[in-house]
TrEMBL record:
InterPro entries: CBM6 (IPR005084), Galactose-bd-like_sf (IPR008979), GH (IPR017853), Glyco_hydro_5 (IPR001547), Glycosyl_hydrolase_5 (IPR050386). This is Cellulase family glycosylhydrolase. One of its GO terms (molecular function) is beta-glucosidase activity. Belongs to the glycosyl hydrolase 5 (cellulase A) family. Keywords: Glycosidase, Hydrolase. One of its GO terms (biological process) is glucan catabolic process. GO terms for cellular component: cell surface; extracellular region. Pfam families: CBM_6, Cellulase. It comes from Carboxylicivirga sediminis.
């Protein structure tokens, strides 16, 4: 054990008396020393296990962590590849990331682990004289966890270890688990299962006394036809799942031989949600410090969407944790969290960062990385080893938190679930200044804005709906495009609207200037102040292109002094909206406004 690891263990003992206590189960609740605890977590994504869609390499047929690493070996050599991974692991997720997550309202982190940072694949291990695998332990994975646990202690946050990539791979969905069909999977190899058990024992021995370790999520998203009925390769039709429950029990028993304190989180088949056959195993091999998990993607946020899990909680008298969700719009996020928390279910979002809109940190992909991936995809002239190295190192640097874009809209949605109707100004808007139309209030569809499509729910008629057609700037239903000067609201449809919180320095009549563009047909808008229409069916001009901006002016918009809520409502679509400004008229208009306000007070009897 190195000196850093020894220091971490000493610090963990010192932190015990300052902690909130171990997470643990009490009936159907997860608690700590302060009482019931709602896990509000986020997953680290492709920090320790790279998934093809986050590496943006699936179009080139590179879907898994190992495929990506092998491609780098092939194109730039082993030494450069090792340097890249050392750089990636050091900078992709840091203490600054964790400090930020704490400030943004998260109380737990769920790091996605790949076993290859902790031990060798069975194909590379030696066997003893009776044929038993000799486990080789690697320092890299344990050192990373030591640092992460220490950061969590400093932030008074819990960490729940997620075995995202188990030995051999735990699912046919290889993108998730790094399964390679050329080798035996977790379910086809006793050696892989024994290695997984040994790894969990090693982790449990190391952290059994640390109160900031929230528990062990022992197999992420198993998806395998463990019944062997060939009806569904991802295990969604399995009726017994005996092999899954048996392995869970063996892992549980092994962990409990060294650690009786930490929660063990177990998952069903079919990406975590098929618990059929569990009733045959629930009383064997599980103790009263076990939590049932499920995952939720792309379905309704109505109560019936999770009622099956709540019924299971009651049946087995075991708590629930929704241990992974995400990849949707802010509207869907807020309503999902509201659903979980009103049913006493903690949650974990996925992931912290990537090159899309729906994460708290948005990565801006460097152009040479796009060039590299495209060369792999279309088979064009490959980049040199040096060019490949520079591209992937720049991509790693793009994931540093200081190079990411913070997404206040996503952060707000993940913190508003228990009061989903809340809104908040996107920024401090004032009269006399241009306000960008994309800077509408933070909040849900129906509260801060309304759009024709604001979430992606897969049903029989639709899949992969695009809630933000322009795919820029914000993760709401509002469709946002980009031009050379910034962003604009586009693809407008009748009935849609945008709300802005503005501070009017004084009451009076204002003139409204609004910048719009329309290439084919100009739309119409209405302008509302605190719910009352001040200007209706204003026709916006036709311009030379959808990005050729023209100003329209509307006079005599009355604003009371102080904070006001204004809305731009689309009466007929076709116009793109860039920015607007409210400018106070002359002093005479101020006096007229005061007179109007005074008469309203008299009329209302005040």
């Amino acid at each position: 054990m190195n000196r850093f690891s020894t220091l971490i263990i000493l610090l963990s003992h010192l932190l015990v008396c300052h902690s909130q206590g171990f997470l643990r189960v009490e009936g159907i609740n997860i608690i700590n020393d302060e009482g019931p605890f709602i896990i509000r977590s986020i997953g680290t994504g492709n920090w320790m296990i790279q998934e093809g869609y986050m590496m943006q390499s699936t179009g080139a047929g590179i879907n898994t962590h190992t495929q990506f690493r092998n491609k780098l070996h092939e194109t730039m050599g082993v030494d450069r590849t090792n340097k890249f991974y050392a750089h990636w692991l050091e900078h992709h997720f840091t203490k600054t990331d964790l400090d930020s997550l704490k400030a943004w309202g998260f109380n737990t982190i769920r790091p996605a682990l790949h076993y290859k940072w902790f031990t060798l694949p069975i194909e590379e291990e030696e066997r003893n004289s009776i044929g038993t695998i000799q486990n080789t332990w690697l320092n890299k994975g344990f050192d990373m966890l030591d640092k992460l646990v220490a950061w969590c202690g400093e932030n008074q946050m819990y960490v729940i270890f997620d075995m995202h990539g188990a030995p051999g791979g735990q699912g046919k969905d290889a993108n998730i688990s790094d399964y390679d069909p050329a080798y035996l999977s977790l379910w086809e190899s006793a050696d892989n299962q024994e290695k997984l058990i040994a790894l969990w024992v090693k982790i449990a021995e190391r952290y059994k006394n640390n109160p900031w370790v929230g528990g062990y999520d022992i197999i992420n998203e198993p998806n395998w036809d463990v019944d062997g009925n060939s009806k569904n390769e991802n295990g969604c039709e399995c009726q017994n799942n005996a092999a899954l429950w048996s392995l869970h029990q063996r892992i549980t028993n092994a962990i409990r031989s060294v650690d009786k304190t930490h929660i063990i989180f177990i998952s069903g088949n079919c990406w975590g949600n098929n618990y059929k056959g569990f009733e045959n195993h629930a009383l064997n091999g599980y103790d009263d410090n076990t939590v049932l998990t499920f995952h939720k993607y792309w379905n309704s946020n109505a109560q019936n969407a999770i009622q099956w899990a709540i019924d299971m909680r009651q049946q087995y008298q075991m708590p629930l944790w929704m241990s992974e969700s995400g990849e949707n719009s802010n509207h869907w996020f807020a309503e999902a969290i509201e659903l979980f928390e009103k049913n006493n279910i903690g949650w974990s979002w996925w992931p912290v960062k990537k090159s899309r809109l729906n994460n708290v940190l948005k990565v801006t992909t460097n152009e040479d990385y796009y060039k590299l991936v495209n060369s792999w995809k279309d088979g064009s002239k490959p980049l040199s080893a040096e060019e490949t190295y520079n591209a992937v190192m720049a991509y790693a640097d793009a994931h540093k938190i200081e190079n990411c874009t913070i997404a206040p809209d996503v952060i707000f949605s993940l913190n508003s679930g228990s009061h989903v109707r809340a809104t908040k100004p996107y920024m401090h808007h004032k009269t006399e200044e241009w306000i960008q139309c994309v800077h509408y209030d933070l909040g849900n569809d129906g509260d801060a804005y309304h759009d024709a499509l604001s979430e992606d729910i897969h049903d029989s008629s639709s899949k992969w709906a695009k809630w933000n057609v322009g795919n820029h700037f914000r993760n709401d239903g509002v469709d946002i495009g980009k031009d050379g000067d910034g962003y604009y609201v586009g693809w407008t449809e009748p009935g849609e609207w945008l709300q802005y919180t503005i501070n009017a320095v004084q009451s009076g009549y204002y003139k409204l200037d609004i910048m719009s563009a329309a290439a084919t047909a100009g739309g119409q808008i209405s302008f509302l102040v605190n719910g009352a229409a001040q200007a209706s069916n204003i026709r916006l001009p036709l311009t030379e292109s959808g990005e050729e901006w023209n100003s329209t002016q509307i006079k005599k918009i009355y604003l009371p002094a102080g904070e006001v809520k204004v809305r731009i409502r689309i009466e007929s679509g076709g116009s793109n909206l860039k920015a607007f400004k409210l400018t106070l008229y002359s002093e005479s208009s101020v006096k007229e406004g005061r007179k109007l306000a005074s008469s309203r007070l008299v009329d209302s009897g005040q």
